[in-house]
Amino acid sequence: MNKIPLLLALFACIGLSASGQVPTPHWSLTWKNMLKTGPVLEQIGTLPTVSAKEAGENGYWSVGCETLDRDYGDFQEYRAYLGELGVTSARIQSGWAKCEQKKGRYDFAWLDAIVDGMLEEGVRPWMNLGYGNPLYGAEKGLGSKIFTDSETMDAWLDFVEAIVTRYKGKVLEWEVWNEPNLGENKTNYDAYAVLLSNTVEVIKRVEPDAVIIGFGLSRMPLEYTGKVLDLLKERNQLDMLDYISFHPYYENPDDAATGIEALMELVHSYSPDIKLFQGECGCPAVLEWAHALRYNEWSEYSQAKWVARRMAFDWTHGIRSSIFTIVDLQYPNMQQSFGLMRTNLFKEVVYKRPSFHTVQHFASLFTDRTVFTGGELGHESNTARSLSVSGLKNPEGKLIGAMYWYNDRIPSSDLSFDSVELWIEGLSLKDPVLVDMITGRIWALPKYHGNIAGGRMKFTGLPVWDSPMVIIERSALPEGTETVGALATGSTRDMKF
């Protein structure tokens, strides 16, 4: 039997031609469904989106491009989408074991393509220096023991010097290690404190203006963080840190609030100059049996809501935020579904999930030049469910809107809205419109939807669900937003993906 035709047919069935060409991306059914549902209001526009190049500097948002050092993703397959996403920074990993496969010899060609490619897309890479190298008996996996012997430490510092030197002027922000509070390191506070101080000393010698991101914590462990900070304080080294990063993986993203606030209070008790950075957090799009947030029936709908709530909370509290991850990753034991874009087994992009558009809309509306957080706002409502309500301010500090969402449950796959009465303290708007942060659709709010009395504004029949909605002055919408005339509900905008 001739097996060649059979093999060619098999390749055709799985979407890869015999010539190796990338298959045509599919449109997204979940995105189409989200655009076909919504509140019973007149749609009057859609938020414009911007590329990273068009966005320029925007200090709020980052996306995760991790695991390229272990080839779990293919940067070239998603590079163009990275620029389109609109975030202006991205987290990558240094890959000591991939760069140094023979002692004392470094190959940075694979990393050059990523760093230079990101910069060409208008995205600034920030690099996590982490994981060991088996050449020196140091493991390279998550939770592997932090080395303390002099031979491995010297080799590590040589690598740090080489990589910082190579990317001087291209990479300004350096994060030291990833989740050092896992495994054997959990109670070995000095191991990380020594690694951190030694590494930062080398970074600063090569690049004095480098921004240092420490810890990369799994969740918000107060005891571990305090013990390490105590050691740094004893050695007069607290000023080496610009940020402390953390990874708040919770099924309900709002459940992380208490821990984040406690971590912020702890860190500021050591130094008010050290800021928090939500450096890695995301949500699966399907039920998974491994990794973070496993054993919950996630969908592409609940993933989009989760991402929106993570970004909304971080922005409300003035915390930089990085969403994990831009694409599904091919781990050795599974294909992980945290991606803002779905990929196939060839690591090719299949389509953009609703979460991709969610990140685009946050990057478009909330920039560090136009709309600023007004913190949490006092409010009352006639619903039994708990709400988060935060203020939006213009550059002059005037309240120009509010963002609100149900915060009391794990995000659901339900696409229906409740209708509630909501009183928001301190709000006084003249011409408000309503924005859905997932789809970017803008809705008209009839006059009876809002009235002002006693220092607060009341909205009647306001659509509410478990994902952020924004009430904002029409004049404060991003430049280029058109809100003239009505658009048909169920628009198939961008249906190619």
What is this structure's SSE topology?
Blueprint: H1 3-13, H2 29-36, E1 43-46, H3 52-55, E2 61-64, H4 75-85, E3 89-93, H5 96-99, H6 109-120, E4 124-129, H7 150-166, E5 173-176, H8 189-206, E6 211-218, H9 222-234, E7 243-247, H10 257-270, E8 275-281, H11 300-316, E9 320-323, E10 329-331, E11 334-336, E12 341-343, E13 349-352, H12 354-365, E14 372-376, E15 379-381, E16 387-393, E17 399-406, E18 418-425, E19 432-436, E20 441-444, E21 450-453, E22 456-464, E23 469-473
Parallel strand pairs: 2-3, 2-9, 3-4, 4-5, 5-6, 6-7, 7-8, 8-9
Antiparallel strand pairs: 1-20, 10-11, 12-13, 14-16, 15-18, 16-17, 17-23, 18-22, 19-20, 19-23, 21-22
Description:
With 497 residues, the protein is an alpha/beta fold. It has twelve helices and 23 strands. Strands 2-3-4-5-6-7-8-9 form an eight-stranded parallel beta barrel, surrounded by five helices. A seven-stranded antiparallel beta sheet has the order 1-20-19-23-17-16-14, with helices on one face. Helix 7 runs parallel beside helix 8, helix 9 packs parallel to helix 10 and helix 11 packs parallel to helix 12. The chain is globular, with a radius of gyration of 24 Å.
Helix run count: 12
Secondary-structure-based class equals alpha/beta
Helix content: 25-40%
- Unreliable stretches covering 5 or more consecutive residues: 3-23, 486-497
Major sheet size, sense and barrel closure: 8 strands, parallel, barrel
